Write the structure tokens for this entry.
Amino acid sequence: MKKTFRLTHEKIKVARLVESIKFEIRKYIKRERRKELPKGVDFWDFDCKFGPVAEEPTVIHLAEITKYIDEAEANKLESFYIEILSKPGHRLKKPKEEPKSGHVKSAELI
């Protein structure tokens, strides 16, 4: 999704526009996540960009989208650009942490 959303309308209030924009974005993300995963892929990941204009977007995390939309509303921007592109994601295993010497686990105290 590469789209410029307007936050001004002659009949619709800004709060209602923001709600509909957030709904559209959530709907798009859900639709992309429902797509069949290619072989060897664990999940769908997303590359996101946000900016007041399409020429100057900054890279953001998927979880920060609503925060940036709320900031755009608070700053009374007339429009903003958002780009959300899905990509295959691979889960990384966390390395096992070795207990430090002298460190006593809470279960060992009982």
Notes: The mean pLDDT is 90. The longest strand covers residues 79-89.
